[in-house]
Amino acid sequence: MLVELLYFDDCPNWMETHRHLRELTRDRADITLHRVLVETDNEAQRLGFHGSPSVVIDGVDAFPIAEDAPAGLSCRVYATPEGFAGSPTLEQLRAAIGA
Questions:
Q1: Which residues contact 81 (CB under 8 A, 6 or more apart)?
Q2: Is the per-residue pLDDT at 71 higher than 60?
Q3: Full residue range of the structural domain in which residue 25 is found
Q4: Total domains, the chain
Q5: 3-class DSSP state for residue 52?
Q6: Contact (Cβ atoms closer than 8 angstroms) between residue 34 and residue 2
Q7: Which of 48, 41, 37, 45 has the alpha carbon at shortest distance from 8?
Q8: What's the pLDDT band for 99 if we cut at 50, 70, 90?
Q9: Number of other CB atoms surrounding residue 55 within 10 Å
Q10: Residue 87 has pLDDT above 90, yes or no
Q11: What is the torsional sign of CA 6, 52, 77, 22?
Q12: Average pLDDT, rounded, for the chain
Protein backbone atom coordinates (compact mmCIF):
# COMPACT_ATOMS: atom_id res chain seq x y z
CA MET A 1 0.00 0.00 0.00
CA LEU A 2 1.31 3.45 -0.91
CA VAL A 3 0.36 6.28 1.44
CA GLU A 4 1.26 9.75 0.21
CA LEU A 5 1.14 12.93 2.25
CA LEU A 6 0.71 15.91 -0.06
CA TYR A 7 1.52 19.28 1.51
CA PHE A 8 3.07 22.69 0.99
CA ASP A 9 5.72 24.19 3.27
CA ASP A 10 3.64 27.07 4.63
CA CYS A 11 0.91 24.73 5.88
CA PRO A 12 0.99 24.68 9.69
CA ASN A 13 -0.73 21.27 9.91
CA TRP A 14 1.17 18.87 7.68
CA MET A 15 3.76 17.94 10.32
CA GLU A 16 1.09 16.68 12.74
CA THR A 17 -0.41 14.53 9.98
CA HIS A 18 3.06 13.25 9.11
CA ARG A 19 3.76 12.30 12.75
CA HIS A 20 0.47 10.39 12.91
CA LEU A 21 1.16 8.58 9.63
CA ARG A 22 4.67 7.62 10.72
CA GLU A 23 3.28 6.22 13.95
CA LEU A 24 0.65 4.19 12.11
CA THR A 25 3.00 2.85 9.44
CA ARG A 26 6.12 2.27 11.54
CA ASP A 27 5.55 -1.46 11.98
CA ARG A 28 3.74 -2.06 8.70
CA ALA A 29 6.06 -3.54 6.08
CA ASP A 30 3.14 -3.55 3.63
CA ILE A 31 2.92 0.28 3.67
CA THR A 32 5.23 2.74 1.96
CA LEU A 33 4.90 6.34 3.19
CA HIS A 34 5.95 9.20 0.90
CA ARG A 35 5.82 12.94 1.39
CA VAL A 36 4.96 14.96 -1.71
CA LEU A 37 5.84 18.66 -1.56
CA VAL A 38 3.51 20.70 -3.77
CA GLU A 39 5.23 23.97 -4.62
CA THR A 40 3.19 25.68 -7.33
CA ASP A 41 -0.41 26.17 -8.36
CA ASN A 42 0.39 24.36 -11.61
CA GLU A 43 1.55 21.30 -9.62
CA ALA A 44 -1.57 21.53 -7.46
CA GLN A 45 -3.77 21.53 -10.56
CA ARG A 46 -1.88 18.61 -12.12
CA LEU A 47 -2.09 16.55 -8.93
CA GLY A 48 -5.68 17.45 -8.07
CA PHE A 49 -4.33 18.82 -4.78
CA HIS A 50 -7.25 20.09 -2.68
CA GLY A 51 -5.32 21.53 0.21
CA SER A 52 -2.66 20.70 2.72
CA PRO A 53 -2.33 18.24 4.23
CA SER A 54 -3.90 15.67 1.89
CA VAL A 55 -3.57 11.93 2.43
CA VAL A 56 -3.70 9.77 -0.69
CA ILE A 57 -3.82 5.99 -0.41
CA ASP A 58 -2.99 4.02 -3.54
CA GLY A 59 -3.93 7.04 -5.67
CA VAL A 60 -7.23 7.80 -3.92
CA ASP A 61 -7.84 10.72 -1.54
CA ALA A 62 -8.45 9.16 1.89
CA PHE A 63 -10.83 11.98 2.80
CA PRO A 64 -12.63 12.81 -0.45
CA ILE A 65 -14.16 16.21 -0.97
CA ALA A 66 -16.56 17.57 -3.56
CA GLU A 67 -15.40 16.86 -7.10
CA ASP A 68 -15.88 20.51 -8.07
CA ALA A 69 -13.70 21.79 -5.22
CA PRO A 70 -10.88 23.92 -6.61
CA ALA A 71 -7.34 22.58 -6.57
CA GLY A 72 -4.60 24.86 -5.29
CA LEU A 73 -2.19 25.81 -2.53
CA SER A 74 -4.52 26.20 0.42
CA CYS A 75 -4.95 24.74 3.87
CA ARG A 76 -7.41 21.90 4.18
CA VAL A 77 -10.03 21.57 6.90
CA TYR A 78 -11.18 18.24 8.32
CA ALA A 79 -14.35 17.43 10.23
CA THR A 80 -13.21 15.61 13.37
CA PRO A 81 -15.13 14.40 16.42
CA GLU A 82 -13.80 17.48 18.26
CA GLY A 83 -14.90 19.88 15.50
CA PHE A 84 -13.12 21.29 12.46
CA ALA A 85 -9.34 20.94 12.42
CA GLY A 86 -6.41 21.36 10.07
CA SER A 87 -5.47 17.68 10.28
CA PRO A 88 -7.36 14.41 10.56
CA THR A 89 -7.12 12.72 13.94
CA LEU A 90 -4.94 9.70 14.58
CA GLU A 91 -8.09 7.55 14.74
CA GLN A 92 -9.40 8.90 11.43
CA LEU A 93 -6.07 8.11 9.79
CA ARG A 94 -6.03 4.65 11.39
CA ALA A 95 -9.45 3.92 9.94
CA ALA A 96 -8.42 5.27 6.52
CA ILE A 97 -5.38 3.02 6.20
CA GLY A 98 -6.91 0.07 8.00
CA ALA A 99 -4.22 0.01 10.67
A1: 89, 91
A2: yes
A3: 2-97
A4: 1
A5: strand
A6: yes
A7: 37
A8: low
A9: 25
A10: yes
A11: positive
A12: 93
Cα dihedral 55, 58, 59, 65 sign: negative
Helix, strand or coil, per DSSP, at residue 84: strand
Q: What is the rounded distance in angstroms from the CA atom of residue 79 to the CA atom of residue 83?
A: 6
The answer to whether the CB of 42 falls within 8 A of the CB of 12 is no
Model confidence over 14-50: pLDDT tens digits?
A: 999 999 999 999 989 999 999 999 999 999 999 999 9
Three-state secondary structure of 34-57:
EEEECCCHHHHHHHCCCCECEEEE
Pairing of strands 54-57, 2-7: antiparallel
Single-letter amino acid code for the residue at 33? L
68 pLDDT band, cuts 50/70/90, is confident
Cα 53 from Cα 25, distance rounded (Å): 17
Residue 51, domain CATH: 3.40.30
Return the closest-CA partner of residue 38 out of 78, 71, 67. Answer: 71
Amino acid at 54: S
